[in-house]
Each structure stands twice: as C-alpha cells, then as structure tokens.
Amino acid sequence: MFKLNEIKELIKLVDQSSLQELEIQNEGFKLFLRKPGRTESVIVSSAPAQPAYSVSAPAAAPSEALPEPSAAAVREPAPAATSSADLHTIVSPMVGTFYGSPSPDAAPYVSPGSKVNEKSVVCIIEAMKLMNEIEAEVKGEIVEVLVDNGQLVEYGQPLFLLKKQ
Asked: What is the CATH number assigned to the segment(s) 87-164?
C-alpha cells in the first residue's frame, strides 16, 4: 500500500518534471499519475477483487470508492461547456483557491473585454501551496469573470465565460 505522504511527494516530483505519466506497481497495488495540461490525476488500485480509489490531485485522501479500475476511474478535466455557439466556459481543473492576478498588488491577468489566445494565463489556482497557472485553451475575448479573487473553487466549476473567435 502506498502511504499518503509518498503519493504527495510523487505528485510534486511529477509536477516539477517534464514527465507526463508515471505508473508504479508494488505488492499488488498500482499507482498511476497523469499530468494532462497542468493538473495531475492519481489512481491507487489494488488487486482486481478489491476496491480502488481515485484521487484528483491535490486532494489529501481518497475521495470516492470505485469498483475495479477502468477508463472511467481516471478523473479528467471535464470538457468546457458552451452556453451558446460562440461562448466557451473555462472551468477549474482542480479544487483550490482562485487568484485573478499573479500577486495581491498586481493587475488581474484578464478582465471582461480582455483578448486571450490558447496559451494566455487567465488565473492561478492554488492547491497544496502550489500555484497552478490556468490557460484559456481557446482564442477569444473574456465576457465575464464568474468567481471572486480568493474564492475557493471546485473541480469543474466555471471560472470565466469567453467569446470564441
């Protein structure tokens, strides 16, 4: 069985490296880390007859029991929902604290009317003292900021509405 502090340390190492995936098997348990974009997914599973747990980093403990691991056991960021043909919703890829600017005295990354491209940083989500820059992933114009600075956000929570170009 993997210890929680070992899993946390592995998450940090994968996050700081250029690795995209890491899989470790030990004494009938399997640990799989994947870094899609700037977040990680962690799956800890045991022998097929025993239950598996899925943890979306940076959660501190297994959050939900799952049956035998499958493709559905991997928590991936939900695809962004569109509220109309031209609007795109940028959602939080993790649980954490939303920050709209790089520091308290700095101007926000974006505000309504800001033009962004696929690689534009729109905010920071702080999780486990790690600052994760969130990118727009589509080209367009920010229509609305849906959360307040310093607000706790959930996985998949809408952060911004963007008019695609």
From this structure: 2.40.50.100
